[in-house]
Write a structure and sequence with these properties.
Chain A is an all-alpha fold and 718 residues long. The first copy, chain A, has helices spanning 2-28, 34-73, 83-118, 120-156, 161-205, 217-258, 263-285, 294-320, 334-359, 364-373, 377-390, 393-423, 426-448, 453-500, 511-552, 554-565, 574-582, 589-622, 624-661, 675-716, and strands at residues 324-327, 330-333, 663-665, 668-670. In chain A, helix 3 (83-118) runs antiparallel to helix 4 and helix 13 packs antiparallel against helix 14.
């Protein structure tokens, strides 16, 4: 067994080395003009300042929780104070993953812009390489951390695997709690800046996105980094680790129940290790010829590597696991475990395709939103909310089918493996995801640095093509979150049963379970409202600041007036040009960055603590049945609200984009600036916190609450 | 026992006679000027046309379901084809309650307007009397129907009570299914008209609500009747019947389990019967002196009668029930049943107060929405969505506490009795609820008939004071829906257990239960989206029609132009006055009425059938455990979405009203017509389908699905 762990750790080290190598490559690329450098530096500085402020607060949190965990588990049979070590390691690894990814992203952005001056292929290469550093750091840190601790605990606890896994689950707790704070904090930051920049800049003042005259524009670009890069990195680290730990806990229970060897526990780590190597392979498949379609390059990387991984998984699973085994009175086969994994992959793909259908620019739902924008913002909003709610239907049916299917083939272990299957190639998935905000930033820099139009067009093209792949990624995120949290939930049950020695029946017709179910179901609503209110408040502060600057900084006011005189492609008179240039750099970007940072840090705490404290409170006061009800409730409504909010937000976003590209409805042409476009901007703005703050945080919330329950399970049973 | 049933039926007959007497009184009141009569007649005609169209469609549905029910249960042991009779009776009684209530409401509206010409007290009296006819018809029909069938089946099935109750549950199915269609259909109608009238009339053309120049104004007033009166009547009939039947089924299981007499079954009917008499008493307590506060009058009626009823319930419960009894291995007392009932009442009151807090004009949340309206519709919407989501928290905690408390005092029977406690004085609650739309209509007629300002001010005052009482009513509706559906859910379980002879464990950690939970949780989202889309589509059609009329009817176009010249209180020049008068009656109201009617009828079917067919499908294909999961899922998210949508809608509505009254924020005064007000109107419009279409329908949805499951329970076993 140790042998296996060594080579698994080896794959992690390979992943880390790869990401260092790619970081070096990025740093060697040209940064472009001085102005670009200056802008890039402002963004990087703002982003790092946020991360520093955030980590300072989180450090306190980590120390306090670690002490509590260590104290509560000290000398406890079946557990150990070392769980605090797992927790701290998980938290630090998560923070490190976010930091490494964001650092390289803030280096890659203006280098992508510069590359886009010469061509598309080069720019894709820089942006994607930036993303792949993030992707590989995340998986490498996850695998090294988990396998390393596992190895250490194996010696420590003399191969008492149930205990080892119990203590190891603290790693997942650390990863999930940091991820929740990072997602929420980053989400508040980015959306406050975005809403502020959009509403006052685009709608009121009528200047393009990322225009240097807009004081919120640097904050907006910082937001892309702290939200979409660092936040997402922590998020995927959490998912990845959660799915591995969930399968390991259930693997341990298979092992104990069937008197088997350790193969069920080690299998998830093996798959993760192989996934790293395949992800690296995948990055080499991503490329595009000049004039070619970058989408194809990305697809080749993502789907090609998935396919290879699937084949390898087949051989690993059928070779490593015993050909048949018993679980909960049923006999399953190793082939069944493979089928369960495949079901997970297919379910993720299916949910992704539905996501694409409901949010893609070509789709009927998005077009129906554009049509209903003609009658104003109210009907645009009603339509978008309707689309979001409707879009929950098929994904949920797919999920329900996947749950029943995976369970049929391999019991609860199958459900855990289905989740793991979706996340095995997180390395490349995250590379593709992180490539998006890098391109987005690159576009912002092009705009702010007044580069020629075609540069921005190239970066826009890069940004746009990531969408389908990102939609698939979202499908995997939601699907795996649901399955992982069910696996963790099942792990909670088996842990309670193992300790108490009696079966735990969480029967929904019992009053205490019903009560838990209701309260659990309510939490995603409360959580979302906290997130939305936070964004609302921060955005208001931002709007007021931008308005203030537009009014009180004379150069800005003058330049805005000048701009209004000219159409998009008209040339300014030299006099006006002078006024316009006088305004350059006069906007006080720093103030906006400050507003976003301080609001985000202040307001991420409540939602985060809510998620962590509620299961503890319910578990200790009302016992494991009510806590079980709570978990079931939070999982169901959490998944639903996540799909609803993400898709409504995505659909509004693309409805707005359709107007910006120009769209013909009922024979009439509507463009940017039309009343219908303005209505669509309102929808997009409402959708912003939905899709980038509360929606994605919910995926973490449900797993975090499950893992908190899993970790406290030994403590709430007398 | 029969003796008891006879006096219970007697109370129902007293209720009916009372409502006939009051109808006669209404008809004797003055109708006002010819113009008022004409307007009143148009509204009544539109409303009846809708009801006819709706009932024609529903008749087909009722016949088909009755045949299916009769066929499936024919000759089946423990059940009977007579269940079809119960179903048809329930459906007809529900339809009749809606019809009777709406008929008198459409008579009372212009009589209230006329009364308001002389004073407030008289107008309150007319409007409230109109509401009380509705209230008493509903409870009388419920009690007569249930008791009558019970009496009939007692002879038929020779006092085999389990079978009697099984067959009787068809009554509740009939009531619930009609209620769902009526709520959805009425909700689509009223909101399509309202949104159309508001957006084009108020916002685009700038004319006041209910202005005769607005072509959608008659449809809007018809909508108040078909949605808020007929729809709500069917809704409360359904709740009332559902809570009685739920307690009777659980009463039967107490009886069987403990070898008791019939007191547990008959108690709910007794309480309902006494509730009718107390409600009648309550109507006499409602009055207001000229210049006094109508709120006090309503409160006296509602809270006074609740208090009296509570005391009577104490004596009935402790006298009728055995002093102690065993249920599920626990010993409970009759006093415990009373405590459970009291807990229900307190929970309803608590939820109502929270509703008032989140939606009242004086409250912090609503004021925060007004503040966020200053930065435009997007922030107004984000704020409102946040408030709605946040408002779920405390009600859910109250509910969870009530579930645990009622269960502690009297087991599942206690939960059912808690629901019944909230609904025992439905008679007067509904009277207060229905009084609102009557006053609203009266105001509309005053506006359309160009009556002096003070008339409208008086009706507005009447309309406004009902709000707190209505909020409490909403609390009762939501609370009782949750508890009733849990009771029906428990009834489903006990029925399955009674038939199969083995305990039914619906364990959430089982895959098939999880899958059911997810799908069930998704249904309220899908259902809401169908309702919202329906409103969106119908509203679009309405908007286009109103715009068309404003453009293509020259008199209207001219009058609109004239109107814009004058402020709210300025006098027109005689020439302009002529142009203005020439437009009177030129708007083609009928077309708008037609659009609303046909859209509503067409689009109510899908959501209704979804609710009825899903449990049947799941039950037959996947069995009772998955169906149990489905019910738990739909109950939890249904309650949450209902609270979220109702409160968000209510808060937006009142935020808008604050601007219309004029509000000072940060030292600046904002009025009607300001940009902030326009933003608030957008929020209100989005909230309209939330609070009046999908929100309230969800309360019915969850009970309907539970009662469908209860009715099919005997069919899906083995």
């Amino acid at each position: 067994m140790s042998i296996h762990l060594y080579w698994i750790i080896g794959t992690g080290i390979v992943g880390l080395l790869f990401s260092f190598w790619k970081t070096g490559w990025i740093l060697k690329q040209e940064e472009g003009s001085d102005k670009m450098k200056r802008i890039g530096a402002s963004i990087a500085e703002g982003a790092m300042a946020f991360l520093r402020a955030e980590y300072r607060v989180l450090a306190v949190f980590v120390v306090v929780v670690a002490i509590l965990l260590g104290w509560a588990n000290f000398g406890r049979e079946g557990s150990s104070a070392l769980i605090a070590l797992s927790f701290v390691t998980g938290a630090v690894a998560s923070g490190l993953a976010g930091f490494l990814g964001m650092r390289v992203a803030t280096k890659a952005n203006n280098r992508t812009t510069h590359a886009a001056r010469t061509g598309l292929a080069k720019a894709l290469n820089v942006a994607f390489t930036g993303g792949s550093v993030m992707g590989l750091s995340v998986v490498a840190l996850g695998v090294i951390g988990l396998s390393g601790l596992f190895l250490f605990y194996s010696h420590q606890f003399n191969n008492d695997y149930v205990r080892i896994i119990t203590v190891l689950s603290g790693f997942s707790l650390g990863a999930s709690s940091i991820a929740l704070f990072a997602r929420v904090g980053g989400g508040i930051y980015t959306k406050a800046a975005d809403v502020g920049a959009d509403l006052v800049g685009k709608v009121e003042a009528g200047i393009p996105e990322d225009h240097p005259l807009n004081p919120a524009t640097i904050a907006d670009n910082v937001g892309d980094n702290v939200g979409d890069v660092a936040g997402m990195g922590a998020d995927l680290f959490e998912s990845y680790v959660g799915s591995i730990v969930g399968s390991m806990v259930l693997g341990a229970s298979v092992m104990v129940a069937g008197n088997m060897d350790t193969s069920f526990i080690i299998l998830p780590l093996m798959i993760a290790g192989v996934g790293i190597l395949v992800s690296i392979l995948g990055t080499f498949m991503v490329s595009v010829k000049e004039g070619g379609n970058p989408q194809k390059g990305l697809n080749r990387g993502e789907f090609g590597s998935s396919f290879i991984l699937l084949i390898i998984m087949f051989f690993i699973i059928t070779k490593v696991l015993p050909s048949d085994f018993t679980l909960g009175g049923n006999v399953f086969t190793s082939l069944g475990v493979f089928w369960a994994t495949l079901i997970g992959l297919l379910a993720g793909l299916g949910i992704g395709m539905i996501t694409e259908y409901y949010t893609g620019t070509e789709s009927r739902p998005v077009k129906s939103i554009t049509r209903q924008s003609l009658t104003g913002p109210a009907t645009n909003l009603i339509a978008g909310l309707g689309v979001g709610m409707q879009s929950t239907a098929i994904p949920i049916i797919i999920l329900a089918a996947a749950i029943m299917g995976a369970n049929h083939f391999a019991g609860l272990y199958g459900i855990a493996m289905a989740a793991l299957g979706m996340l095995a190639n997180t390395g490349i998935q995250l590379a593709v995801d992180a490539y998006g905000p890098i391109s987005d930033n690159a576009g912002g820099i092009a705009e702010m640095a007044n580069l020629p139009k075609e540069v921005r067009q190239r970066t826009d093209k890069l940004d746009a093509v990531g969408n389908t792949t990102a939609a698939i990624g979202k499908g995997f995120a939601i699907g795996s979150a649901a399955l992982t949290s069910l696996a963790l939930f099942a792990a909670f049950r088996t842990t309670v049963e193992a300790i108490s020695g009696v079966p735990l029946s969480i029967n929904i017709t019992e009053a205490r379970v019903m009560a838990g179910l209701f309260v659990g179901g309510m939490l995603p609503f409360l959580f979302s409202s906290l997130a939305m209110n936070a964004v609302g408040k921060a955005a208001m502060a931002m709007i007021e600041e931008v308005r203030r600057q537009f009014k009180s900084i004379p150069e800005l006011a003058a330049a805005l007036k000048v701009m209004k005189k000219y159409g998009e492609d008209q040339k300014m008179s030299s006099e006006d040009q002078k006024i316009f240039e006088a305004a350059d750099g006069k906007a006080e970007y720093g103030k906006c960055v400050e507003i976003s940072t301080s609001s985000a840090i202040r307001q991420m705490l409540m939602p985060g603590l809510l998620a962590i404290c509620t299961p503890v409170l319910v578990g200790f006061v009302f016992g494991p049945e009510t806590l079980g009800g709570l978990l079931a409730g939070v999982t169901v409504t959490g998944v639903l609200m996540a799909i609803f909010q993400s898709n409504a937000g995505g659909a509004w976003d693309n409805a707005k984009k359709l107007f910006e590209e120009g769209i013909t409805i009922n024979g009439e042409k509507y463009c940017k600036g039309s009343e219908a476009h303005k209505a669509a901007v309102v929808g997009d703005t409402v959708g912003d916190p939905f899709k980038d703050t509360s929606g994605p945080s919910l995926n973490i919330l449900i797993k975090l609450m499950a893992v908190v329950s899993l970790v406290i399970a030994p403590l709430i049973i007398k």
